[in-house]
UniProtKB/TrEMBL annotation:
It comes from Streptomyces aurantiacus JA 4570. The chain crosses the membrane at residues 82-104, 124-147, 153-171. This is Uncharacterized protein. Signal peptide: none annotated. InterPro entries: DUF6328.
Length: 215
C-alpha cells in the first residue's frame, strides 16, 4: 500500500445513522439517549403534567368541602345533595389517580422498572383526566342548579363536558393527525408508552422492553 493512501487501513468508525449495531440502536432516537434515559425523561415530563392537574383537583376539592358548611347547604333538595356527594367522590377519585404514579414509583424504586412505571403512570393520568371531567361537570351542574334553574344547570353541565372533552381529547388527536400528515409527529404506539412514540425501533436488541438500570 502506498504511503500516500488517503484511506489507510484500520478499524472503520461506526456510522451514527447505522441502527444495525446494538450500541447505535440504543442511541438513534434523535436525542442520543438510551431507553432508560428516555424513560427518565418521560417520567419527569409526566410529573410536570400531573402537577398542573393536581392543582386543579385540589382547588375543586377544597371548594366542594366548604360547600357542606355554608348556611344554604341544608336547604338543598335530594337531587342537589346527590349531585354534591357524587361530585365530591369523583374529585377524591381524581386526586387518588393523579397521585398514584408517585406510589407506583415508590413501590418499584430501584428495581429497574422505569419504563413500566411510565406506562402505568400514563394510564393512571389518563384515567384521572376522565374522572376530573366528570367532577368538573358535576360541580357546574350543582352550582348552576342552586344559583339559577335545573334546566340551565343541565345545559351548562353539558357544555362543560363537551368543552373539556374537545380540549382534552379531540384537540390533541387533531393536532397529532395534522402533525403526522406534515411529518412532524411520529405515529403513536400505544403498546410502548415509555418509548415516546418511537415504536420500539431504537431499543437495544435483546432488551425486551426492560431496563436494567435503577429507577
Amino acid at each position: 500500500m502506498s504511503d500516500h493512501d488517503p484511506h489507510p487501513a484500520g478499524p472503520s468508525r461506526p456510522d451514527p445513522a447505522d441502527t444495525s449495531r446494538p450500541a447505535d440502536a440504543a442511541l438513534n432516537n434523535g436525542r442520543r439517549e438510551t431507553p432508560l434515559e428516555r424513560a427518565d425523561r418521560n417520567f419527569t415530563e409526566l410529573l410536570q403534567e400531573l402537577r398542573v392537574t393536581q392543582t386543579g383537583v385540589q382547588i375543586l376539592f377544597a371548594f366542594l368541602l366548604t360547600l357542606a358548611f355554608t348556611p344554604r347547604f341544608p336547604s338543598l333538595d335530594t337531587v342537589q345533595r346527590a349531585t354534591y356527594v357524587t361530585t365530591l367522590l369523583l374529585a377524591v377519585l381524581a386526586a387518588a389517580l393523579f397521585t398514584a404514579p408517585a406510589a407506583v414509583h415508590r413501590g418499584l424504586f430501584q428495581r429497574g422498572a422505569k419504563p413500566l412505571i411510565v406506562r402505568v403512570s400514563s394510564r393512571l393520568a389518563g384515567a384521572g383526566l376522565s374522572v376530573l371531567v366528570l367532577a368538573l361537570t358535576g360541580s357546574v351542574l350543582l352550582v348552576v342548579d342552586v344559583a339559577a334553574t335545573r334546566t340551565g344547570a343541565v345545559f351548562a353541565a353539558a357544555g362543560t363536558l363537551v368543552a373539556c372533552g374537545g380540549l382534552w381529547w379531540l384537540l390533541p388527536r387533531a393536532v397529532a393527525r395534522a402533525g403526522e400528515r406534515a411529518g412532524e409527529v411520529r405515529p403513536a404506539d400505544d403498546g410502548d408508552a415509555d418509548n415516546d412514540g418511537d415504536g420500539g425501533r431504537d431499543r437495544a436488541p435483546g432488551s425486551g422492553g426492560r431496563s436494567d438500570g435503577l429507577t
